[in-house]
């Protein structure tokens, strides 16, 4: 953007385009007019932000309204596009604007009851990674599929450590059966199997996030896809209890061919957030059956004329699959109700403050 060469325009931002900026450029115009520069959040650690912009990776401060007071969901997270007020001699660089997200990866905040936690933003593809040394864990994959669908990203199941599995084909088949419409890719960082195929998902400067439990090989895969040692971009790791390197923060890593990967720490708990649609897409064959139920709001548990229960009875629907569907749907309905209750409570508080302040100004002769 500071390129003084003749004919240089605001669209001449090759570095940012490789990070996927081309699809957000249009939304940035008003911020550019205010003197802000486009940047993408590459790492967050305890409220500190690192962004990649035309001038490289820098640490920036978020403004108060983006970080402190606002809703948790409006805080910049890894993957967000932001508007940065550049540093001057006397001030440091500050994030002043958050560009609307195209997708947001949410889960229920494990620390707080009815609060969503945004794990990453603007993700196009989610690699749901599970290791064939122990897995695949079908029930966990279903959960992660529901989260991925709900986020607006396209999920791909990656079965890693294929070199440690004797019957990889059977593993793929068992996953394919619970993941209708989802690509399932066998991968081994050891033999290099599946790497080329996985790389194609970032074509067109797409953003790919890797999720899955600790130790399944997410960081190893990121290293292989990037084709080198990513320590150079500042990956933050620590030793876990078993003396093993484990990722401790979400981190956005640029691919040499364009596009980015988001490496994430292993998710211990994948608790559902208000995402019925994600559940319905994950259990597509059950949603299909549900259209034949007698009642539109059938819960598929006790109702007469329930096509889902009929299929269960007839043995055409798998019992484990049905149980997983009912459990996840309940969990997401509950999260939805809790967040609604929380929203109402906070609305009541806001109304009370507004009422109190009106009373204050009335008593003090001002409206
Ligand atoms: N045999 C084999 N081992 C692998 C493969 N991929 C990863 N590993 C090993 O699995 C272990 C864990 O890999 P990581 O890449 O650190 O796993 P992670 O998913 O990033 O784990 P967290 O950062 O804790 O979430 C390491 O010892 C890797 O060397 C593979 O394809 N084959
Ligand atoms: Mg890791
Ligand atoms: Zn039903």
Q: How are the SSEs placed, and which strands pair?
A:
Layout: H1 14-18, H2 29-33, E1 37-45, E2 48-53, E3 56-62, H3 64-67, E4 81-85, E5 94-98, E6 104-108, E7 116-121, E8 125-131, H4 138-151, E9 154-160, H5 168-178, E10 183-186, H6 195-199, E11 207-211, H7 218-226, E12 237-239, E13 245-247, E14 251-254, E15 260-263, H8 276-282, H9 284-290, H10 307-314, H11 319-363
Parallel strand pairs: 3-5, 8-9, 8-11, 9-10, 11-15
Antiparallel strand pairs: 1-2, 1-4, 2-3, 4-5, 6-7, 12-13, 14-15
Helix pairs in contact: 4-8
The chain binds guanosine-5'-triphosphate, magnesium ion and zinc ion.
Describe the structure.
The protein is α/β, with parallel strands linked by helices. It has three domains: 14-98, Nucleic acid-binding proteins (OB fold (Dihydrolipoamide Acetyltransferase, E2P), Beta Barrel); 104-263, P-loop containing nucleotide triphosphate hydrolases (Rossmann fold, 3-Layer(aba) Sandwich), CATH 3.40.50.300; 276-346, Orthogonal Bundle (Ribonucleotide Reductase Protein R1, domain 1), CATH 1.10.40. It contains eleven helices and 15 strands. It has helices spanning 14-18, 29-33, 64-67, 138-151, 168-178, 195-199, 218-226, 276-282, 284-290, 307-314, 319-363, and strands at 37-45, 48-53, 56-62, 81-85, 94-98, 104-108, 116-121, 125-131, 154-160, 183-186, 207-211, 237-239, 245-247, 251-254, 260-263. The strands form four sheets. It has a six-stranded mixed beta sheet, with helices on both faces. The protein has a five-stranded mixed β-barrel with strand order 1-2-3-5-4. A two-stranded antiparallel sheet has the order 6-7. A hairpin with a 2-residue loop joins β1 and β2. α4 (138-151) crosses α8. The longest helix has 45 residues, at 319-363. Bound molecules: guanosine-5'-triphosphate, magnesium ion (MG) and zinc ion. Residues 290, 293, 298, 300, 303, 306-308 line the site of zinc ion.
